[in-house]
Specification:
six-stranded mixed sheet; single chain
Length: about 300
């Protein structure tokens, strides 16, 4: 099992993420004691304000100093701290198997997801894993122990990227399963019509989830680094095409730019974070850059 873990965990990224925390962008709802502010008021941690005393309240929480100045009973309230849940969604459709070695999109996305999962568990928060192609293919319910990591990598090790992509349907199914407010992080090449993805994003946002889309593209897809006569094989559709790469480069890059603009607009409308990731870049650098940006947003 240790060898499987090392396949999916990026040691350099874990070393560079040491000491960093992943904070939800907003208040957290959880069922464990943790380190994130909850929207629920309680009697612990940090003072938040007063409310009027009602019969049955514990007299220990009465602010007696305020009583002597106002001649009225008030209860001191505090912010509770709690844990958050992060749902990781990994696209395992056939298009994700493009690329060789470390730059393979599925391997790269899986490494990002599992490294983030380890960091989240290490700070006593919960994480789940869903794999998706035409539907929600597998689901590991939220957990916060190292045993959760073993369950996740065992599932990833059994994944075969063979089917087509219908990510929207998988996310809608996940939205129906996830009850309370959470973070939903999706790792995919997002090769789909942005308008088809929008209903799923709307459902997740309606349920008050924070949504982050990691668009993982290979350098070939991002820059079309191909030359000469090239055979193009359909990963999610049958057939092949033989073409001069130089003849179709401009058209491909224009189509990619158009799809990117449409995707950015859908994310803007629904207050979804879009993170562009290059699978040719070290995973540690991609994760550290993302968490630095996230930390700056959280401080604001």
């Amino acid at each position: 099992m240790a060898s499987i873990l090392t396949r999916y965990l990026d040691a350099e990224a874990l070393n560079r993420l040491s000491g960093r925390t992943i904070e939800p962008q907003g208040l957290a709802l959880g069922n464990l004691a943790g380190g994130h502010r909850s929207p629920l008021a309680g009697f612990a941690v940090e003072f938040a304000g007063h409310r009027e005393y009602v019969i049955g309240d514990d007299p220990r929480h009465v602010d007696w100093r305020l009583y002597y100045t106002r001649d009225k009973l008030f209860i001191k309230q505090y912010e509770m701290e709690t844990n958050f849940v992060c749902h990781l969604v990994l696209d395992v459709s056939a298009s994700m198997k493009y690329g060789e070695g470390e730059a393979n999109k599925l391997s790269y996305a899986a490494k990002l997801a599992t490294t983030l999962a380890y960091a989240i568990i290490r700070q006593n928060d919960k994480v789940s894993l869903a794999t998706a192609d035409e539907a929600l293919r597998g689901f590991i319910p939220p957990g916060h122990t190292l045993a959760q990591m073993h369950r996740m990598v065992e599932h990833l090790n059994a994944v075969a990227p063979e089917r087509t992509t219908r990510l929207s349907e998988a996310l809608i199914e996940l939205a129906g399963r996830s009850g309370r407010r959470a973070i939903v992080m999706v790792f995919s090449d997002l090769f789909a019509e942005p308008d088809e993805l929008e209903p799923a994003l709307q459902q997740l946002r309606f349920r008050d989830h924070e949504v982050v889309l990691f668009r993982v593209l290979h350098p070939d897809e991002r820059e079309f680094r191909l030359d000469g006569m090239t055979k193009f094989l359909g990963l999610e559709a049958e057939g092949e095409e033989l073409a001069q790469a130089e003849d179709i480069r401009a058209g491909y890059l224009a189509a990619l730019a158009e799809q990117t603009t449409a995707l950015q607009e859908v994310c803007r409308r629904n207050r979804v974070e879009l993170v562009d990731v290059d699978s040719g870049r070290p995973a540690a650098e991609s994760l550290v850059d993302y968490l630095d940006r996230r930390s700056r947003l959280h401080r604001r």
